[in-house]
Amino acid sequence: MAKKTSTKKTSKKAPAKKPPRMSASAARAEGAARQQREREAGPTSDRPKQAKTTKPATPKRVSLLDAAATVLAGAKEPMQAKAIVETVVKRGLWKPGAGKTPHATLYAAMTREIDTKGKEARFRKVDRGQFAAGKGV
Description:
The chain is mainly alpha-helical. The chain has a domain at about 65-135: Arc Repressor Mutant, subunit A (Orthogonal Bundle), CATH 1.10.10.
């Protein structure tokens, strides 16, 4: 026995024709003409003036590296990166994000700064994993 297959008639809508794209030079010319018309209309036109909105000043977020330099400047002895992060968070100088290992990121950033700035770096490596404030603080 042969299988019957049903054939559904589907009506496809013809796609709407898009207007032809304007060339880049034509778009520039149109924009320049619009600006010229607005300039000629002057400030006495019926256009409402847009008031300048000023955003409230938000305090700039301190980076972990800057906060670590602050902590090490006040420390009496060298600290490990993990202890520095814990101290920074405890003092409220920096708030951790979604990262799982901020101490590893801090360690890498401090060693990178030591390599690039040399003696002018804010940190100096005292021992394996131990950092102290450098001359750049």
